[in-house]
Amino acid sequence: MRITVSRAPEWMQTTGLEWIFRIIQDPKRLWKRYFIGFFKFGIMIWPQILFFRYQKIRMRLTKTNGFPSINHLDDDITLEIKFSRILNDYTCSFLIDDFANLIKNKDRIILDLSLIEQIDSSGFSHLIYILRQCKQMKKELYITGISTSVEKALVATRTKAVFKNYLVEDVHEIYKRPLKKNAPSFYYSIKNNGDVTLIKLNGMLEASEMAKIDMEKVFRKLTGKYCICDLGGLKFVDSSGLVFFLKIKKHLTQQNKTVSLSNIPENINQMFFITKLNKVFNIQ
After folding, report:
1. Which residues contact residue 19 at a Cβ distance below 8 angstroms, ignoring those fewer than 6 apart?
2. Angle at 83 between CA 78 and CA 88, to 5 degrees
3. Residue 27 burial (CB < 10 Å; 0-12/13-18/19+)?
4. What's the order of all strands across the beta sheet hosting 186-193?
5. 149-205 pLDDT, tens per residue?
6. How far apart are CA 123 and CA 91, in angstroms?
7. Residues 88 and 120 sit within 8 Å (Cβ to Cβ)
C-alpha cells in the first residue's frame, strides 16, 4: 500500500529543517529514528569537543598560544604565515576571521608548515579556505615546510591532491619565480570534431566561478552527439561546481545526446563518489 506524504515548505527544505516537518507529521513512526540518530551524533562529536577543550587548557598552562605568526616581508608583495605546533580551529580562528583584509595588498602568500606537529580536520578545512581565498583574490599561494607527519595526514585525509600544485620544498625558489598577474582561477574550452564535442576544464570550479558562466552560451556550442568533459586540468570542484556537469547532462539528455567524464583527478573523483554522482555519469 502506497502512502503519499506531503513535502515540507521550500524554506524548511533549503534551511535543513525538513526533518522537523516530517516528525510532526508522523511522530509515532519517526521519533525513534531521530532520537537514536541524535544520540549517535552526540557520542561521535563529544570526543572532538573534549579534545578542543584539552588543547585550549594545555596552551594556557604551557603559556603558549599556538597562533601562527604573520610576517610582512621586505619586498612589500609577500606575506609569510608561519604556523605553530598545532593547527586546528582554535589556533586559526583569528587568522581566518580577517584573512581577506590581511592579503588584499599582497600578491604572494607563503604558508610555512615546518613547525607543525599536530593537525586535525578543522586545520585542513582552514588550509582549503585559505587556498580558495587566494584563488578568488588572484593571489599566488605557496606551501612550504611539509614534514613527514603532515604529508601522511594529507594522504590520510585525501587532500594531498588539492595542495599538490602549491607545495614547494625550498622557500628560496619562490622568490626566483616571476609573479603571475591576472591568471584566471577557472577557464574552459570547447572544441567540436564531427560527432564529438570536447570540453576541457582548468582551475578551480566553485560558486564564484559558476556565477560567471553563461550556460546558454555553453549549450549553443555543444553540437556533437557525444560530449566528453576532460577534467584533467581541474584542481578543485565544490558542490556548486558539480552543478555545471549536471546542467550539461540534463541539456544533452533532452536532445538524446550522451556525456562522459575523463581524466578526473583523485580529489575531484572523491567528490563524485561522496555525492553519488559517479552513478549518474559515465566516467572513463
Report:
1. 34
2. 130
3. exposed
4. 186-193, 196-205, 226-237, 258-262, 282-283
5. 788 888 877 778 888 888 888 777 776 666 665 556 787 888 888 888 999 888 888
6. 9
7. yes
Cα-based distances in Å from 213 to 5, 27, 201? 37, 44, 12
- 196-205/186-193 β-pairing: antiparallel
CATH code of 69-176, in short, is: 3.30.750.24
CA contacts within 13 A on the Cβ side of 62? 10
User: Which strand (E) or helix (H) includes residue 204?
Assistant: strand 196-205
**Alpha-carbon separation of residue 137 from 159, 208, 221, 245 (angstroms):** 22, 11, 29, 25
DSSP helix/strand/coil, 78: strand
Question: Contact 222/248 with Cβ under 8 angstroms?
Answer: yes
All cell numbers assigned to 247? 546542467
Instruction: Report how far apart, in Å, the C-alpha atoms of 172 and of each of 133, 143, 145, 168, 268 are.
Output: 24, 12, 12, 9, 31
- Count how many Cα atoms sit within 13 Å of the Cα of residue 268 in the half-sphere of its side chain: 25
Encode pLDDT of 39-87 as tens digits.
787 788 787 777 767 766 665 555 455 678 888 775 567 888 888 888 8
**pTM to 2 decimal places:** 0.47
Beta-strand ranges (E) seen in 64-195 are: 69-72, 78-82, 86-87, 108-112, 118-119, 140-144, 186-193
What is d(CA 85, CA 87) in angstroms, rounded to the nearest whole number? 7
- The CATH class, in words, for 186-283 is alpha beta
Q: Tell me if 260 sits within 8 A of 282, measured CB to CB.
A: yes
In sequence order, what are the residues at sequence separation of 6 or more whose Cβ sits closer than 8 angstroms to the Cβ of residue 205? 186, 234, 236, 237, 238, 241, 244
Assign 21 to helix, strand or coil: helix
